[in-house]
């Protein structure tokens, strides 16, 4: 049996309330809030978070392939999946692929993963969908778009939910798109995009699937499906004959927003979190066509309960004080250039140091047993030579905040720059920037964890590295 | 067998520019100003100088092509083919230039030399120090932090270790800044010449929490210079010369901030340098024997910790010391930074170490420009100069005194 072995999700900690958008643009943004990435996050870093959540308790070396689905890869040329694979400390002898450009790339990647496992070319495939789309300011998309990620481990052994059947439909229909030089998406009038695009395509895919499996919409415990917005979602519930009270998985429009390529799969994670063995879930996705899936939850679901997933990520949040912060985070204006020295990068350095820059490996001294980061030439405690220093992964270590400061004199994307010294459980201390923090709520001794972030851009290169953050639970 | 340096080398002339935002002066103007004053003070001509140690950290920001060599000084002062050694040890550069000059004299390589530290920071267009992010991992992808950000971590750690609330901790530090400004106001060559109150310090804008504006030194242009010779020649130049009693320079292994056993509340490199210098100078009880200390107070917390790490006060006991508010004033038991310190006199990076010695030199000669901060009888003083940041310092201690 091939199916979902594990799942995980990620929702960035920052939320922008739609009321703040109304204050800026004069109304019409609707209720609730949307989840937005911090300035140091992108589709890659969110994918690492969702992947980490999904692989909790699972041997990283058991993953044979990584498929990354997004419409917002940080590089146009240069694979994203390879960076994610390194940050997840996956083996090098895996296949990594980007499934890009389509809102449906996540469910397309899942099909490719199922096929690979069925064909025997992989035992476990990690599929991560992550999107961070920038909406045009003062558009209908602005209150709507949110950021997030979902991850699924597809495999044969220990299946938590089986994918009983799928139906895929490919269409050349154009409704939302970006040209190669566009930052924000374009669209057409929604009477056309909804009536000729979303509604008939999704309906057709679901109908074909149900027909092939002799099912009706009444046979599902929950339906998790894509919709461009809350209104079209509600309309689709009626069209499909679902009971809005009991059968519909919350699409999170009120508190996360439309997360693009991650949307349908994040909704599925939400459904799996509450699912019981025997439940049947209808999953449907839309974009360049549509697809629909029957997912049967098995006993294995009980083994993958301890995920942060949707629920726990929703619970921890920081609300942005104003729209200006959001504009800063997304770099939506031409800001003042200060004549401080520009950040630099060095590709040879990053390459040499890749095992600790991406994989966050440190050293353990075989003589004195001390753990240290970054890796050393000589043990920083007993001066034992390099051959006594054993490389060990540290990315899974939590820690406590030993000391910190809040530096106001740093590039002003989101001052202050919180500098932190964090003592890791089991040994080791990292000197790090702190992200996703509430500066009013820091104290020495507070629990910390590590998170993979985009440190800065320099010379046209995205520099990724690890930061610390207060534990998100 | 190493002999030590005590009383082998004398300082016979010193110069120090006006410190501050010297919009009208470039790096060459500053070099000339300090060098000319030092020569005049020693009664020597530039052509008598046989070798030079030039200390500058950020000179590369303001010189042609971004490359500093000895020609920065030789072309400015038109010295004719004498060796000019350029030294650099971050904020501890000044101590390094004096040390190089001293050892060359002790080795009988020369008879009369010049040590000069200079920094021109206010041409770069922003407050704070330049950061050239092309170095190792911290530059490229790590937790780079400014000077205030790094030192502020020590303040947080100190407060936590000794059970001070943020309010208590900041108030303790404010007492230090009030003293620095008190003396800055009484020093005509100082950069910051206005007195402040504890409340002003407490309520100042944040630079790097918990350090506010008045906990931090300014960004200063300036230069300082010393003319040195062997002690036996000193009388040729003046009667009130001073001698070098001891040096300590210690480069820490540098990973303090990543070692779990480092707690950010003491300067390990300074402790090591102090032990070296005290041993060389024969000092057993520094607090009793030293008449004044100029320590590296780029931040209020830096003065506090340096005072403890120079063994003038036990670790963690500074608060009790401060209960006697005058203890560290010029008329107190252990005068510290009565020049205004790096904090108020100013901190032109490469010049500071030499400038600290300048203050002691003038105090010993009873020539503090403003008599109200003249310490009564100075025989022995300590200049502490360090480069780097908590956990990764080069600590430098220079002890000078009457012969």
Which CATH first-tier class of the largest domain in chain A would you pick?
Answer: Alpha Beta
Tally of alpha and pi helices of chain A: 12
Secondary-structure content class of chain B: alpha/beta
What is the helix tally of chain B?
14
Question: Keyphrases for this structure?
Answer:
heterodimer; A: OB fold (Dihydrolipoamide Acetyltransferase, E2P); 9-stranded mixed β-sheet; 12 helices; 22 strands; 24% helix; 29% strand; B: 403 residues; alpha/beta; Peroxisomal Thiolase, Chain A, domain 1; two-stranded antiparallel ribbon
Task: Describe this entry's structure for a reader.
The complex is a heterodimer of chains A (473) and B (403). With 473 residues, chain A is α+β, with helices and mostly antiparallel strands. Chain A has 2 domains: 3-330, Peroxisomal Thiolase, Chain A, domain 1, CATH 3.40.47; 347-360 and 395-470, OB fold (Dihydrolipoamide Acetyltransferase, E2P) (Beta Barrel). Helix content of chain A is 24%, strand content 29%. Chain A has a 9-stranded mixed β-sheet with strand order 5-4-6-7-1-8-13-12-11, with helices on both faces. Chain A has a 5-stranded antiparallel β-sheet with strand order 20-19-18-21-22. In chain A, β9 and β10 form a beta hairpin. The longest helix of chain A is centred in the middle third of the chain and has 23 residues, at 190-212. Chain A starts with a strand and ends with a strand. The mean pLDDT of chain A is 95. Chain B has helices spanning 27-42, 71-77, 93-106, 137-140, 147-161, 166-184, 198-203, 231-234, 268-281, 286-289, 300-309, 318-323, 341-344, 352-364, and strands at residues 9-16, 51-55, 84-87, 112-119, 206-209, 211-212, 222-230, 242-251, 292-294, 380-389, 392-401. The longest helix of chain B has 19 residues, at 166-184. The mean pLDDT of chain B is 93. Chain B is an alpha/beta fold and 403 residues long. Chain B has a domain at 9-122 and 220-229: 3-Layer(aba) Sandwich (Peroxisomal Thiolase, Chain A, domain 1). Chain B is 34% helix and 18% strand. In chain B, the strands form 2 sheets. In chain B, strands 3-2-4-7-1-8-11-10-9 form a 9-stranded mixed β-sheet, with helices on both faces. The interface between A and B is large, with 49 and 47 residues. β18 (399-407) of chain A pairs antiparallel with β5 of chain B.
């Amino acid at each position: 049996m091939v199916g979902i072995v594990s799942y995980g999700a990620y929702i960035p900690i920052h939320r922008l309330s739609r009321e703040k958008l109304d204050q800026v643009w004069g109304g019409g943004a609707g209720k609730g809030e949307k989840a937005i990435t911090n300035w140091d996050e992108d589709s890659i870093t969110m994918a690492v978070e969702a992947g980490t959540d999904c692989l909790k308790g699972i041997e990283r070396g058991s993953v044979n392939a990584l498929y990354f689905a997004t419409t917002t890869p940080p590089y146009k040329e240069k694979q994203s999946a390879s960076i994610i694979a390194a940050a997840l400390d996956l083996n090098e002898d895996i296949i990594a692929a980007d499934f890009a450009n389509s809102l449906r790339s996540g469910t397309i990647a899942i099909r490719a993963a199922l096929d690979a496992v069925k064909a025997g070319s992989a035992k476990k495939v990690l599929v991560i969908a992550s999107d961070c789309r920038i909406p045009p300011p003062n558009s209908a998309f602005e209150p709507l778009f949110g950021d997030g990620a979902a991850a699924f481990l597809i495999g044969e052994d220990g299946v938590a939910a089986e994918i009983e059947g799928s139906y895929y439909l490919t269409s050349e229909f154009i409704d939302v798109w970006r040209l190669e030089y566009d930052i924000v998406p374009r669209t057409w009038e929604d009477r056309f995009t909804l009536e000729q695009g979303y509604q008939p395509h999704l309906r057709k895919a679901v109908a074909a699937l149900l027909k092939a499996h002799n099912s009706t919409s009444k046979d599902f415990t929950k339906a998790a499906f894509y919709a461009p917005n809350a209104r079209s979602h509600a309309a689709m519930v009626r069209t499909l004959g679902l009971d809005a009270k009991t059968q519909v998985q919350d699409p999170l429009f009120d508190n996360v927003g439309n997360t693009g390529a991650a949307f349908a799969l994040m909704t599925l994670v939400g459904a799996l979190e509450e699912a019981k063995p025997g439940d049947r879930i209808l999953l449907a996705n839309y974009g360049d066509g549509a697809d629909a899936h029957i997912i049967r939850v098995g006993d294995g679901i009980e083994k993958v309960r301890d995920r942060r997933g949707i629920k726990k990520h929703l619970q921890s949040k920081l609300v942005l004080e104003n729209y200006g912060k959001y504009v800063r985070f997304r770099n939506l204006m031409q800001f003042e250039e200060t004549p401080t020295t520009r950040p630099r990068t060095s590709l040879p350095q990053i390459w040499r140091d890749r095992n600790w820059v991406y994989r966050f490996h440190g050293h353990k001294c075989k003589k004195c047993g001390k753990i240290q980061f970054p890796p050393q030439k000589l043990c920083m405690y007993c001066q034992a030579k390099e051959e006594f220093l054993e490389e060990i992964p540290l990315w899974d270590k939590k820690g406590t905040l030993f000391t910190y400061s809040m530096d106001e004199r740093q590039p002003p994307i989101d001052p202050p720059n919180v500098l932190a010294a964090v003592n890791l459980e089991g040994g080791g201390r990292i000197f790090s920037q702190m992200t996703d923090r509430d500066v009013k709520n820091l104290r020495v001794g507070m629990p910390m964890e590590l998170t993979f972030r985009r440190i800065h851009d320099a010379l046209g290169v995205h520099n990724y590295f690890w930061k610390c953050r207060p534990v998100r639970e | 067998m190493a002999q030590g340096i005590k009383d082998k080398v004398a300082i016979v002339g010193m110069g120090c520019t006006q410190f501050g935002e010297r919009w009208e002066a470039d790096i060459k103007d500053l070099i000339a100003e300090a060098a000319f004053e030092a020569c005049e003070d020693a009664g020597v001509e530039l052509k008598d100088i046989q070798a030079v140690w030039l200390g500058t950290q950020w000179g590369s920001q303001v010189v042609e092509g971004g490359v500093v060599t000895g020609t920065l000084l030789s072309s400015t002062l038109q010295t004719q083919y004498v060796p000019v050694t350029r030294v650099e040890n971050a904020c501890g550069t000044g101590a390094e230039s004096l040390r190089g000059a001293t050892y060359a004299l002790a080795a009988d390589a020369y008879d009369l030399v010049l040590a000069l530290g200079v920094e021109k920071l206010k041409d770069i267009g922003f407050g704070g120090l330049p950061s050239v992010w092309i170095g190792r991992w911290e530059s490229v992808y790590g937790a780079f932090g400014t000077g205030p950000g790094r030192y502020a971590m020590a303040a947080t750690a100190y407060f936590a270790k000794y059970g001070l609330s943020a309010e208590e901790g900041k108030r303790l530090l404010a007492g230090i800044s009030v003293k620095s400004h008190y003396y800055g106001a009484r020093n005509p060559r100082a950069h910051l010449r206005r007195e402040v109150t504890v409340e002003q310090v407490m309520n100042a804008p944040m630079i790097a929490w918990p350090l506010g504006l008045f906990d931090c030194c300014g960004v200063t242009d300036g230069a300082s210079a010393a003319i040195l010779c062997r002690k036996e020649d000193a009388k040729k130049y003046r009667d009130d010369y001073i001698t070098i009693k001891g040096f300590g320079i210690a480069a820490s292994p540098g990973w303090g901030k990543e070692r779990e056993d480092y707690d950010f509340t003491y300067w390990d490199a300074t402790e090591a340098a102090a032990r070296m210098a005290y041993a060389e100078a024969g000092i057993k009880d520094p607090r009793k024997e030293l008449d004044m200390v100029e320590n590296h107070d780029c931040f209020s917390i830096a003065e506090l910790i340096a005072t403890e790490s120079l063994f003038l006060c036990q670790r963690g006991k500074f608060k009790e010391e401060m209960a006697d508010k005058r203890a560290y004033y010029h008329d107190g038991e252990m005068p510290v930074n009565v020049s205004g310190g790096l904090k108020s006199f100013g901190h032109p990076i490469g010049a500071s170490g030499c400038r600290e010695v300048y203050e002691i030199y003038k105090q010993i000669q009873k020539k503090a420009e403003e008599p109200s901060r003249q310490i009564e009888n100075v025989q022995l003083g300590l200049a502490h100069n360090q480069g780097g940041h908590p956990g990764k310092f080069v600590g430098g201690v220079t002890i000078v005194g009457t012969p």
